[in-house]
Amino acid sequence: MSSTSNTTTISTVGPPSRRNTELAMLVFAVIIPVFAYANAGLALSDEMPSGMLSYGIGLGLLAGVGHLVVRKFAPYADPLLLPIATLLNGLGLVLIWRLDQSRRLAQRAASIDQVYAAAAPKQLMYSAMGVALFVGVLILLKDHRILQRYTYISMAAALVLLVMPMFFPAKFGARIWVTVGSFSIQPAEFAKIVIAVFFAGYLMVKRDALALASRRFMGLYLPRGRDLGPILVVWGMSILILVFETDLGTSLLFFGMFVVMLYVATERTSWIVFGLLMSAAGAVGVATFEPHVQERVNAWLDPFAAFEKGTTDQIAQALMAFGSGGVFGTGLGQGSSDLIGFAANSDFILATVGEELGLAGTMAFLLLYGLIVERGVRTALAARDPFGKLLAIGMSAAFAIQVFVVAGGVMGLIPLTGMTMPFLAYGGSSVLANWALVAILIKISDTARRPAPAPAPSTDAEMTQVVRP
Amino acid sequence: MNKPLRRIAIFCGLLVLALLVRDNWIQYVQADELKNNKHNHRVLMARYSQKRGNIIVDGQPITGSVATNGTDFKYKRTYKNGKMWAPVTGYASQAYDANQIEKLEDPFLTGNDDRLFFNRTIDMITGKKQRGGDVITTLNGKAQKAAYEGLGNKKGAVAALDPRTGKILALASTPSYDPSTIAGADDAKEWKALQPKDNKDDPMLNRALRQTYPPGSTFKVVTAAAALENGKYTDINAPTKSPLPWRLPLSTKNLDNEGNIPCENATLRQALRYSCNTVFGKLGDDLGKDKMREQAEKFGFGKEFLTPVRANASVYPEDMDRPSNAMSAIGQYDTRATPIQMAMVAAAIANDGKLMKPYMIDSLRAPNLSTIEQNKPEEMSQAVSPENARKLQDMMKTVVDEGTGTKAQIPNVEVGGKTGTAQHGVANSKNPYAWFISYAKGEDGSPVAVAVVIEGSDTIRNDIAGGRLAAPIAKDVMKAVLDSEK
């Protein structure tokens, strides 16, 4: 019996649940940020930060609740996703708190008549809400395949989310916020998940048509004209976002995610070629007549020229922060990454990592992000249903592209776009959306690794089908 | 579906890899460049994060540091008698970088210099704050004071050297500025008021090293040196073949002397004593521009040099016709010299022809008082032969004893000098520059050579200007050096 069960993917015995591994990792994921907090506090004011105990307990509670819920509702889930998300979120809180202490940022805010409010307590609140959302998704979403039912509702929701910001005033040169009173959200962060659901549902149904009805030309399968429809629509949407919301990052994210999912669904390389050609055409086209995009490209090509001309000093300041950190960094609280000024604790938070934790710390962070993506891709590989596969790969790819776009922008690898480092950066929308994303991945991985229910015993089957080596 | 999934996994891996490579590029390969980038505010913050080392004259600091309460800077630079010492120290400002010694020796003054690595490590282990080292200068406080006070509220500059070693003893420039006023982070108003755009006096210009003036008659010493070196004349007491009046070559114009002075066929000694334009103009023409420039370059003309603060190049013009060369030979036309250059001319002659390279930093001293670097005198060139140098000394002594430079006489001390009054402006319309170069000599060689220039001496327009205005300052500076030698 046991010799046969090893040869099949779906076994009744099943792999270990790995919940204890997750718990052990979570202990580290809580202790490391607490030590980092103590370190930053000692460096900044020579004393242990006063909120240390409550912070430690708070983070521990969030992690503990998350863990218990996973244990109960997704016992076979991937053991690394929750600890990594907790670690990133916890370290993000420390970094944000550290930047809250900056006298320079306080003066800067005062000089432009802004109220300088500490961001860390708010971020802690957002983290609690994020974990609550995580718990909610795990409890309410019994099976990820339920989401398939909402394919077209998701499409409508995604459209609404993406179009909304156009009707609200632009902030800092980009229309990516929806502001109601003093409360503002970035709908694109949520749209990321909703649109992945739509793409997965849509492509699962249409994949055969898209894959098979094609002509071979110069080694590539060319899709039929009418099958090009969906990709043209998404491309058009991306361009519209870019033009009307001047949001390069979101536009890149959605188009990239769609191309990846299309490729996975159809197994046709031609889609990748089409995607690349179309995004290149779109980017060049928009860059030629959109001054905001042009400015960013110029700042990317020569950050120090932009610094001298006074158009923007952000990239140059970020690069100098990275360079000043060197290999081992200045140590938490001892750098001057607050010279970046604007968005130091959100879009540019990686520069603080770079300066204070050095090359070693930054690489560790990048690898943590890499690990989340890797666990996501692994989940997609292990998933047994095409919808789950597509959804998992779509969200993982979106996560990877987002990290690449933000980190690449801050490090001067690609033009800067206004997006936030998942979990690390200050911002409620980002924290909430990414906790939801991790919850769905955990749910899919649970379904993927869950052992199949034991087949009903059938005595005569046993009699006739015994195989002896 | 799993094959494309694996490819996407590789694609995501490549994205992360690209980020890792980029991170290594900016945090390892380019780290130093970015760290020390001129726009990197951290460099400035580090400069003022501890007490800065001092610049020392005669064993006493002429700089200091005071604690501040800003976000970026813990300390601020202060200066003692800043206006007097500004041409030596330069400034160190929290907003406007630094210059001169403050800039050149910045790593040492902040304590970041590699040579202080051992000290830093010890300090780190013993828990002390990083300290900066001191820069010991060659300057002479009394001579500097004499030079600065002598210039008073006139516009001008003084440079004094020790001819035997090349040590710079005095370096004054007026009008000057107090670097303390621009040391802070919020001194924009003071800074603006010092800029040439808003201040036509240009107080931040280091005239002694950077401003080139027409040297006027003081340049005749160089012409005399060229004549002796090239064997044109060997006896300074033999009459020269010098007609009066002398017409400029290829020209219908005569070269005039200042007043009715005995210049016809005058000896070299008398020609220098009376400052005969005709004699030296003709000498320059006889020698030709190449030989003239060759001699000037032996005295240091033609290239900038580092003291380590950069001194601008003095010029003997290259492309010119014969009449221009004759004018250049008496220090007019396009001949231009910095005060330090003319001090070097006097110094080379006083040191029997050997020109020593001028320098103003004697040594660098670590916070634990050990000497990290000791500068040694360096020979720049043999400007004239010792024999000819002595002849030139003889001639310059006559100028001071009974010529135009009598105001520089010091009792019981051998002093040689040369006055000059340089015309400038269109048709010589502007007030001339009054020059005086001189040296004093004792038993063991000459301890001091000086050059003084005063701009816009408005009352006197003839050649006595140099003797009347500049010579007394030179005398005071020489006397200050001689007194401190004792």
From TrEMBL, chain A:
<feature type="transmembrane region" description="Helical">
    <location>
        <begin position="423"/>
        <end position="442"/>
    </location>
</feature>
<feature type="transmembrane region" description="Helical">
    <location>
        <begin position="250"/>
        <end position="266"/>
    </location>
</feature>
<feature type="transmembrane region" description="Helical">
    <location>
        <begin position="390"/>
        <end position="417"/>
    </location>
</feature>
<feature type="transmembrane region" description="Helical">
    <location>
        <begin position="188"/>
        <end position="205"/>
    </location>
</feature>
<feature type="transmembrane region" description="Helical">
    <location>
        <begin position="124"/>
        <end position="141"/>
    </location>
</feature>
<feature type="transmembrane region" description="Helical">
    <location>
        <begin position="348"/>
        <end position="369"/>
    </location>
</feature>
<dbReference type="Pfam" id="PF01098">
    <property type="entry name" value="FTSW_RODA_SPOVE"/>
</dbReference>
<protein>
    <submittedName>
        <fullName>FtsW/RodA/SpoVE family cell cycle protein</fullName>
    </submittedName>
</protein>
<keyword id="KW-0812">Transmembrane</keyword>
<keyword id="KW-1133">Transmembrane helix</keyword>
<dbReference type="InterPro" id="IPR001182">
    <property type="entry name" value="FtsW/RodA"/>
</dbReference>
<feature type="transmembrane region" description="Helical">
    <location>
        <begin position="52"/>
        <end position="70"/>
    </location>
</feature>
<feature type="region of interest" description="Disordered">
    <location>
        <begin position="449"/>
        <end position="469"/>
    </location>
</feature>
<feature type="transmembrane region" description="Helical">
    <location>
        <begin position="271"/>
        <end position="289"/>
    </location>
</feature>
<keyword id="KW-0133">Cell shape</keyword>
<feature type="transmembrane region" description="Helical">
    <location>
        <begin position="23"/>
        <end position="40"/>
    </location>
</feature>
<feature type="transmembrane region" description="Helical">
    <location>
        <begin position="226"/>
        <end position="244"/>
    </location>
</feature>
<keyword id="KW-0472">Membrane</keyword>
<feature type="transmembrane region" description="Helical">
    <location>
        <begin position="79"/>
        <end position="99"/>
    </location>
</feature>
<feature type="transmembrane region" description="Helical">
    <location>
        <begin position="150"/>
        <end position="168"/>
    </location>
</feature>
Automatic annotation (TrEMBL), chain B:
<feature type="domain" description="Penicillin-binding protein transpeptidase">
    <location>
        <begin position="156"/>
        <end position="479"/>
    </location>
</feature>
<dbReference type="Pfam" id="PF00905">
    <property type="entry name" value="Transpeptidase"/>
</dbReference>
<feature type="domain" description="Penicillin binding protein A dimerisation">
    <location>
        <begin position="52"/>
        <end position="135"/>
    </location>
</feature>
<dbReference type="Pfam" id="PF21922">
    <property type="entry name" value="PBP_dimer_2"/>
</dbReference>
<dbReference type="InterPro" id="IPR054120">
    <property type="entry name" value="PBPA_dimer"/>
</dbReference>
<dbReference type="InterPro" id="IPR001460">
    <property type="entry name" value="PCN-bd_Tpept"/>
</dbReference>
<dbReference type="InterPro" id="IPR012338">
    <property type="entry name" value="Beta-lactam/transpept-like"/>
</dbReference>
<protein>
    <submittedName>
        <fullName>Penicillin-binding protein 2</fullName>
    </submittedName>
</protein>
<dbReference type="InterPro" id="IPR050515">
    <property type="entry name" value="Beta-lactam/transpept"/>
</dbReference>
